[in-house]
Amino acid sequence: MKGLKIIVLAKQVPDTRNVGKDAMKADGTVNRAVLPAIFNPEDLNALELALRVKDQIPGTIVTILTMGPGRAAEIIREGLYRGADGGILLTDRAFAGSDTLATSYALSQTIKEMGKFDLIIAGRQAIDGDTAQVGPQVAEKLGINQVTYVEEILQIEKSSIKARRRLDNGVETVKAPLPLLLTVNSSAPDCRSRNAKLLMKYKHARTVTERQDAAEDYLYLYDSRPFLNIQEMTVNEIQSTPEQLGLAGSPTKVKRIENVILQAKDAKRLTAADEGINDLMKELIESHVIG
Amino acid sequence: MNNLFVYCEVEDGVVADVSLELLTKGRSLANELKCQLEAVIIGSGLKEIEKQVIPYGADVVHIIDDPRLAPYTTAPHASVLIKLFQEEKPQIALMGATPIGRDLGPRVSSALHSGLTADCTSLEIGDHEDKKAGKTYKNLLYQIRPAFGGNIIAWIINPDCRPQMATVREGVMRKLIINDNYPAKVNHLEVSKYVSDTDFAVQIIERHLEKRKINIKGATIVVSGGYGVGSKENFKLLYELADLLGAEVGASRAAVDAGYADHERQIGQTGITVRPKLYIACGISGQVQHRAGMEESAQIISINTDPDAPINSLADYVITGDISEIIPKMIKYYKQNTK
After folding, report:
1. When you count CB atoms within 10 A of the terminal residue's CB, does the N or C end of chain B come out lower?
2. Starting from the edge strand earliest in sequence, which strands make up the sheet with A268-271, in order?
3. Is residue A131 within 8 Å of B120, Cβ to Cβ?
4. In terms of CA atoms, which chain A residue is nearest residue B158?
5. Could you report the per-residue pLDDT of A52-108, keeping only the tens digit for each?
């Protein structure tokens, strides 16, 4: 069977799962600078499913597409270390303030520039928003079918695939024609770790912008080793109408944001001493809350 | 025209609770907006299905019934909603934040270029003034949800695009029958006008759905554990206490992510919302997403080694200490003092 062309949609996200005390500033706002930027966890599951197709069908090409600021090139390198063949960073001030709809527009217009593809695989949702919207919105804009909540690709045929979906209350096996977009749950296999050889190979992979800041010693590398060039695309390289980009292209607006400030109740404070626990239990039993 | 639409999910001939909850919320929003509430039911074998939704106050029930429309697949259901919304131009469209709603909603919003907000914890009607553009918008839907890891609460609006779309998790809103004989109009839609054969390219080969085994939503007492419980092993203490009290065991997202508890026990914005008589939070710090799923509990006990854990501000009783020490004491006292 001929290799497939697979695009993996990935996002660099602040690690909101590990918001420590220092992550909140004195005024109660979030100090983004101290939150580590990571490869969105379910996008790593998506990458793993793509790499498994590549293991199975030689000649498969896996390309990571991410939209974000310049530093998001980090996750493309992470993907290359794990076995992706290449990556594109879509980055431009014009995309700033995009909601999920404007994001899916920019991504789908970029995918149209990337030529023919068989599969697009994305994480179900990103941990900084949990919306699960960008995958289906991209599929709709490209006019292709979608299968969401996938945990395993069971079978690949010439023009279709079979996949298992993991839902809240069970599983479902579906067969869908290619080209197709899949979104992947965290119940899918974890992504393989970095490969030492690939790490050596791609250690100096850089975008054009990053190269401008790179040590001169390495600059000669990029002419002789084209695989070290991480492709960077801006709004100029895609077909787009400005009204659909960034803030202007986002139907949803944030009217107001409130920091979460807790109004403390008048709680009874107890220690682990026997007496306190016993009194509490006695009170709960007497008031018929328990018992 | 310009009414409030609720997409209703049906499984085995029964309308999902989340859809009835949204109809209830939709009814009160429609009253405020002085518009009609319209339900959309797409599926197979839907004879008399309207009887399940009309008591919640639907003015119009759109039904499209065809053997190919169940079980749910994306394209045909999306096609119905997209065409129906283009004809009817709803101002608001609501659906459950379920695997179906989260698959369907973005597809429809993308086609209609309308804004969609996921997992809202509250919906309100209000005005908006865009000072820059010098424009005032009346009666917008405020879509309120925690954001950015729950450190902030965001009020989202869609000033210019319609419908204003939002998804809401099961249990977040309450369902309430207003009148068993509510006067409603039933509108049977003709399948061929809304769906084409090419919409059935994705086939379901096999399906294994289980009825939910655990019923945290209906439990009167919930013993819930967080990351601070420390291990799956330590969670056994929670089960022991829960068994004794006739309670269910819940978990925070951090505990689920760490593998201490199953996903189906997750309480919070992206899990289940509970309103028990008693909520015992063990080793839960209390991020806002978790609180969104339990803050309406009648009484809350927080057991935490950190005396300043954010959850303590919600609690009626705060016990500072280690659960491995405290829960056995609770169990012991309970066994000795009840039959």
Report:
1. C
2. A268-271, B317-320, B299-304, B278-282, B221-225, B248-251
3. no
4. A252
5. 999 999 999 999 999 999 999 999 999 999 999 999 999 999 999 999 999 999 999
C-alpha to C-alpha distance for B154 and B146, rounded to whole angstroms? 6
Residue B190 contacts residue B63 (beta carbons within 8 Å) = no
What are the CA-CA distances from residue A155 to residues A162, A176, A183 (Å)? 5, 11, 16
pLDDT 10s digits, B209-244 = 877 667 888 888 999 999 999 999 999 999 999 999
Q: What is d(CA A76, CA A96) in angstroms, rounded to the nearest whole number?
A: 20
Supply the mean pLDDT for chain B.
Answer: 93
Q: Does B142 touch chain A (CB under 8 A)?
A: yes
Estimate the crossing angle of helix A274-286 against helix B323-337, to 10 degrees. Answer: 50
Q: What is the per-residue pLDDT for A111?
A: 98
**What is the rounded CA–CA span in Å between residue B52 and residue B49?**
6
| Nearest chain A alpha carbon to B199 | A145
Rounded to 10 degrees, the C-alpha dihedral A228/A230/A236/A240 comes to 140
Buried/exposed B159-186: b ≥16 CB within 10 Å, e otherwise: bebbbbbbbbbbbbbebeeeeeebebeb
CB-based contact A170 B264, cutoff 8 Å: no
Taking only the tens place, the pLDDT of each residue in B14-38 is 999 999 999 999 999 999 999 999 9
User: Least CB-CB distance to B208: which of A101, A171, A259?
Assistant: A171
| Domains of chain A listed by start with CATH number | 5-244 (3.40.50.620)
Q: Backbone phi, then psi, for A118, in 5-degree steps?
A: -105, -40
Cα–Cα distance, B222 to B227 (Å, whole number) = 17
| B163: preceding bond cis by omega (within 30 degrees) | yes
pTM, entire model: 0.86
In this predicted structure, what is the pLDDT of residue A168?
Answer: 81
SS3 B147: strand
Q: Which residue of B has its CA nearest to A165?
A: B207
Nearest Cα residue to A109 out of A209, A241, A280, A261: A241
* Cα(B247)–Cα(B238) distance, integer angstroms: 10
Side-chain half-sphere exposure of B140, counting CA atoms within 13 A: 23
Q: State the DSSP H helix or E strand holding residue A43, giving kind and residue range, or none if neither.
A: helix A41-56
Q: How far B184 CA lies from chain A's nearest CA (Å)?
A: 32
Residue B271 has pLDDT above 90, yes or no: no
Separation between Cα atoms, residue A65 and residue A79, nearest integer Å: 10
Read off the DSSP letter of residue B140.
E
Closest partner residue to B107 (CB to CB) among A99, A128, A136 is: A136
- Tell whether A251 is within 8 A of chain B (Cβ): yes
Q: In the beta sheet, which residues pair with residue A164?
A: A152, A173
**Closest Cα to residue B222, out of B121, B298, B109, B336?**
B298
Structural tokens at position B244:
């004794």
Contact A265 B321 (CB under 8 A): no
CB nearest to A169's CB, from B128, B212, B320 = B212
pLDDT: is B152 or A12 the higher one? A12
CB contact B103 to A (< 8 Å): yes
